[in-house]
């Protein structure tokens, strides 16, 4: 076996060192991520420059890059809270959040990679307890759901705005009440619905009765006016008109000129 030239060994060693250095220096940041640069010999975390964006980067081998996901993320939280009258309520929420990319260095320096458990979850729980504590179980179960959701979002956002985190939305997925309270509320809502339906039927019946009375009054007024306008003279004129039309009819008949007790011509008969 031939011995390697004396110059080959140093070259191989240098090449190995270069490969190691390059491997330590090369950083690839994926889609939806950003990197916080930590300079070991220069004041640690870089906070006065934007984080490293997506793609391939070369950094000094003695420095580090901490990669964060900066796209929108989802947090599902199920918690026990108290209503205004002290009853236990199970609240299920979903929050959509993302770190502020421009402040990623400060987030890492002040909160750390575990900012979800350190900041977001406590903020969401605190806001939920504060908001739910203002309402009764009945309000939570029915009419106030959207308002509660909006208030939890506003209070959580107020906390997170100064924590380098963007809160996009909060959704109240479900409100679970004690079984006895839920049953009582449902019975009450059913009774209220039945009461509204009964009132509606009463109003409808009253309107129908009013309509019948108005129609009857109208007919009575019309008959009274008609009766008052039918004088003997008018009746005679109408009778004469009818007699003339009868006489002009092609049907055979016998007409006696004269008048009966009413003053109208007498028709004896026809064939």
Automatic annotation (TrEMBL):
CDD domains in the cross-refs: SPFH_prohibitin
SMART domains: PHB
Pfam family of the protein (one): Band_7
Membrane topology: Single-pass membrane protein
InterPro entries: Band_7, Band_7/SPFH_dom_sf, Prohibitin
Compartment annotation: Membrane
Residue stretches making up the Band domain: 24-189
Protein name: Prohibitin family protein
């Amino acid at each position: 076996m031939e011995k390697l030239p004396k110059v080959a060994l140093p070259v191989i060693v240098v090449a190995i060192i270069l490969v190691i250095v390059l491997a330590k220096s090369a950083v690839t940041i994926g889609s939806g991520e950003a990197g916080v640069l930590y300079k070991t010999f220069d004041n640690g975390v870089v906070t006065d420059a934007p984080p490293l964006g997506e793609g391939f980067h070369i950094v000094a081998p003695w420095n580090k890059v901490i990669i964060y996901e900066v796209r929108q993320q989802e947090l599902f939280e199920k918690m026990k809270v108290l209503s205004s009258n002290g009853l236990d309520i199970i609240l299920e929420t979903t929050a959509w959040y993302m770190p502020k990319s421009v402040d990623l260095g400060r987030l890492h320096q002040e909160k750390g990679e575990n900012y979800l458990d350190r900041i977001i979850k406590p903020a969401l729980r605190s806001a939920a307890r504060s908001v739910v504590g203002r309402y009764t179980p009945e309000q939570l179960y029915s009419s106030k759901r959207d308002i509660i959701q909006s208030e939890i979002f506003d209070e959580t956002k107020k906390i997170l705005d100064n924590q380098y985190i963007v809160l996009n939305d909060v959704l109240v997925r479900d409100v679970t009440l004690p079984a006895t309270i839920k049953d009582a509320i449902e019975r009450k809502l059913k009774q209220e619905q039945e009461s509204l339906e009964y009132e509606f039927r009463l109003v409808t019946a009253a309107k129908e009765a009013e309509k019948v009375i108005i129609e009857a009054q109208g007919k009575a007024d019309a008959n009274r006016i008609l009766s008052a306008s039918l004088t003997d003279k008018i009746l005679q004129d109408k009778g004469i008109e009818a007699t003339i039309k009868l006489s002009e009819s092609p049907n055979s008949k016998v007409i006696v000129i004269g008048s009966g007790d009413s003053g109208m011509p007498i028709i004896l008969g026809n064939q």
